[in-house]
Sequence to fold (175 residues):
Amino acid sequence: MASFVPSKEIREATLAALAKRGVALEEIAELTLFLQKDYVPGLCLETCLMSVQHVLEKREVQNAILTGIELDELAERGQLSQPLQTMIEADESLYGVDEILALSILNIYGSIGYTNYGYIDKLKVGVLQRLNDKSSGQVHAFLDDLVGAVAAAAASRIAHHHRGELERAAEQQTD
Ligand code: MG
Fold:
């Protein structure tokens, strides 16, 4: 047996896990657009979706998503040991490992990601509102933070690219 899993398999498993938990990439892209539209003139959903797809290509991101969703699902089926089962099932605010795991996604694109993440985590807009609806009977202790972090990372990526474009345009004018 190979001692490593092929990248393609991990990428496909990540996308399948998100789809299985009812999160469309377009919904994540909508959060990215919400975060960045006031700063990047003419930004469209298509560009945000491409940025989300880029973020999802990273192994750190895939690992975080697969791990978090697995724990959500185990908690949903009551298969974790106590006291972890109750903490994750109840999405206890003092647990905090869900947020720590999401930080491994935000780390990739620098500090602007943290600001964006904190902002949408507070507002709970769009898909985040649905994932935080406890009446669904589903456990999304990890998934809400992971989705918010992917959206925030995709927004940071767009912000960095936009800055790069502005700088190149300014250089060309002074040439
Ligand atoms: Mg959470």
Notes: The chain has one domain: 7-174. The chain has nine helices and no strands. The chain has a mean pLDDT of 93.
